[in-house]
Amino acid sequence: MTSTEEITTKNPVPTNLLRIYNQKLVSSDEAVKQIKSGDNVIVQPGCAVPSELIRAMVRRKDELENVTIYHILVVGELPYLQPGMEKHFKHKAFFIGANARKAINEGRSEFIPIFLSEVPLLFKLGRINTDVALINVSPPDEHGFCSYGVDVGTIKTPAEKSKIIIAQVNKYMPRALGDCFIHINKINYIVEHDEELKELPQVDPDTTPEILAVFDKIGRNVADLIEDGSTLQMGIGAIPDSVMKYLFDKKDLGIHTEMFSDGMIDLVDAGVINGEKKTLHPGKIIAGFVLGTKKVYDFIDNNPIIEFHPQEYVNDPFIISKNNKMVAINSALEVDLTGQVCADSIGTKLYSGIGGQVDFIRGASKSEGGKPIIALPSTTKNDSISRIVPTLKSGAGVVTSRGDVDYIVTEYGAVNLWGKTIQERAKALISISHPKFRDELTKYAKETFFI
């Protein structure tokens, strides 16, 4: 545990604030006694997950029934999702991570389809009332403010609406700047527990060279669409990483993104990302949360170039559209020949979520000079299955509708579907499908769409 003396040394916290801090200081086991059977609990997600508080809560499982836990994707183990926990804990996800996928598809957990921009509004408007918030924050500064650090997006508003806030104060949490602070006066119980944050590497280390080569081609095709002075939204993974490799010859790029990750740092250091041409928050990187490694955690610590804001602001399509030349880069599981984009399920099997895709697709489409982009490999399973399909799988969810869709990019090129007929869309999408499937797709398009 961090001593009061150590806190005083790191941050010259006034005596009156130290007294308030110490009055709220308890062990994790003591803090989670505030959670009662039937309570609703909101958990800080992503790499900011308050692991010690979760472990303490689960240690109390035999004393608890029907505790409902809400959050979007959380990195790391989720012990309350293990088989046999259903009597004690219910889980409702706004976005499905790999660690929750099995439980959700086995009916031991539930999924709430929702735009990421609207997740905080469920709590703000009282659609969901939370009894306890579990958060992971930086030590307080000299004014008594703790930073939500690497994830403020979908936690700040719900936490502040909760009856009880339990904070894990963690020296490893960076002091991110922006609208991402909570004062110790608002925290009910403080648990000092220092542990390294969870990390999520940019690219899965198990990705094969063949697949990386496909991502590289997609990255080049996407980069070709990005003009100097654009403002970007992109996520984590091999495709965004590949895009960023081809941006070093661009000038005056900006960032307004739900998520900030490692790959953007080198572009900032190279002066490519400087925000000088941004029409909203010029000179600033705007984000809601971080998924990445210690490299990005160190980068955001006390860094005035980057501001974190709640997701209801960052992902608001109206706010997004205020950035001229807004380029939104998102992915998909499959796209049908009419332009419908499935990004959250494989047939009826739930896979991820809506997330911020539609928020940014719509925001970029209303931006002056904006470009909404869906990027995906043309195939999966060693080229045995086409991702550009005649029709979506039975039960598949449409995340981005054919009315919202604009650019689609694969390793075989980029096409713009906006304003095109069904017949024109089918021809365009077939042209960027894998050659192995073009005859099959053309046959379907001729029989169905009269091309």
Report strand order across the widest sheet.
8-14-13-12-11-15-20-24-25
CATH topology of the largest domain: Glutaconate Coenzyme A-transferase
Radius of gyration: 23 Å
Beta strands, count:
25
**What structural class do the secondary elements suggest?**
alpha/beta
CATH superfamily assignment of the largest domain? Acetyl-CoA hydrolase/transferase C-terminal domain
Mean pLDDT, rounded to whole units? Answer: 95
Largest pleated sheet: 9 strands, mixed
What would you say the CATH architecture of the largest domain is? 3-Layer(aba) Sandwich
Shape: globular
SS field, number of helical segments = 16
Total number of domains: 2
Low-confidence stretches: 1-9
Task: Report the CATH C-level class of the largest domain.
Answer: Alpha Beta
Report the sheet-strand fraction.
15-25%
- Helix fraction bin: 25-40%
Spatial gap, N to C terminus: 69 Å
